[in-house]
């Protein structure tokens, strides 16, 4: 039995698919839908919101499957990696099976997108097609985004403005200015999750010529980027609270409830310090912790936006 085949004896096929979907990070797809739905206000419709969530998760899972197979084929995922098990690289699933799973996930997203197109119009079609194309191009194709230092921009854009504003659009037929401001906070924290991953994998990424920003500019840059993204998230919600993006008339020009995410600031500071102090496998828990910070932040921001009505 080879080293790659050994895990198969311990992990069943169903479990392998769960691992490949990366459930700990799926909150990155949930968070922008929560915030976008709240930003849409009282006119938000539950049907399109549920469909937006289903579509977002399908696209994220499809992107994770694509990342699993393409990183294995390009040599970015090897036996030397210190992150969570990758299904194709470890031999749990074949590349052919993973490609089929990727296609199925994106097909599911497309099916949901047909319904959402009726809710939000042609713009939703463009958003959906661009999201699927970017999910594949992130690590696949002739010029993969993640291998040329564009992964951070991809995550910020598609899990921030695109997802938040897209959700608001299908939920209410319009994109309130507050959704755009709030999307910067969500996008920043979603990108912070990626940065933890990139700081951890810098050595193996460099060996595979995966030129993430951390590989290009070094670990210290990655640590500073992480802290900066957390700071941007809290700055955005503070700006929203004091009228940027519009404010409820009942609050005299402010959205005081938009300050609720500040309750998580001590947690964010603690995470930034830990990311700066640890390396390698010790960063694995911090990836999930950053995703949970994003979920808590988004839930509080959504609550604040709903409270202002």
Could you please describe the fold and organization of this structure?
The chain is mainly alpha-helical. The chain has a single domain (10-308), classed as Farnesyl Diphosphate Synthase (Orthogonal Bundle), CATH 1.10.600. The chain has 14 helices and no strands. The protein has helices at 13-21, 27-39, 46-74, 87-90, 95-120, 122-137, 151-159, 161-172, 177-200, 202-207, 213-217, 219-241, 265-277, 284-308. α3 (46-74) runs antiparallel to α8 and α5 runs antiparallel to α6 (122-137). The radius of gyration is 19 Å and the shape is globular. Mean pLDDT is 91; it is low at 1-9 and 248-253.
Question: What is the element layout, followed by pairings?
Answer:
Layout: H1 13-21, H2 27-39, H3 46-74, H4 87-90, H5 95-120, H6 122-137, H7 151-159, H8 161-172, H9 177-200, H10 202-207, H11 213-217, H12 219-241, H13 265-277, H14 284-308
Helix pairs in contact: 2-3, 2-8, 2-9, 2-14, 3-5, 3-6, 3-8, 5-6, 5-8, 7-8, 7-9, 8-9, 9-12, 9-14, 12-13, 13-14
């Amino acid at each position: 039995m080879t080293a790659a085949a050994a895990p198969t004896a311990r992990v069943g096929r169903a479990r392998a698919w769960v691992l490949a979907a990366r459930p700990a990070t799926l909150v990155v797809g949930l968070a922008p839908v929560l915030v976008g739905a709240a930003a849409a206000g009282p006119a938000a419709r539950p049907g399109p919101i549920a469909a937006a969530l289903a579509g977002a998760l399908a696209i994220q899972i499809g992107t994770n499957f694509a990342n699993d197979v393409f990183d294995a084929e390009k040599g970015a995922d090897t036996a030397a990696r210190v992150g969570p098990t990758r299904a194709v690289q470890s031999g749990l699933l074949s590349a052919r099976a993973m490609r089929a799973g990727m296609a199925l996930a994106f097909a599911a997203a497309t099916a949901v997108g047909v319904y959402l197109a009726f809710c939000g119009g042609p713009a939703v079609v463009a958003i959906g097609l661009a999201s699927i194309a970017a999910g594949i191009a992130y690590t696949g194709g002739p010029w993969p985004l993640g291998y040329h230092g564009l992964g951070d921009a991809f995550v910020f854009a598609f899990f921030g403005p695109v997802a938040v504003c897209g959700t608001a659009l299908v939920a209410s037929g319009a994109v309130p200015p507050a959704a755009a401001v709030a999307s910067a906070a969500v996008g920043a924290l979603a990108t912070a999750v990626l940065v933890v991953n990139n700081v951890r994998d810098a050595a193996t990424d460099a060996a595979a010529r995966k030129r993430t920003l951390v590989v290009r500019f070094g670990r210290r840059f990655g640590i500073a980027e992480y802290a900066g993204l957390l700071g941007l998230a809290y700055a955005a919600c503070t700006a929203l609270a004091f009228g940027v993006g519009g404010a409820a008339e009942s609050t005299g020009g402010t959205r005081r409830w938009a300050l609720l995410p500040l309750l998580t600031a001590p947690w964010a500071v603690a995470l930034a310090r830990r990311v700066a102090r640890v390396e390698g496998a010790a960063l694995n828990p911090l990836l999930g912790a950053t995703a949970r910070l994003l979920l808590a932040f988004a839930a509080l921001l959504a609550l604040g936006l709903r409270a202002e009505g």
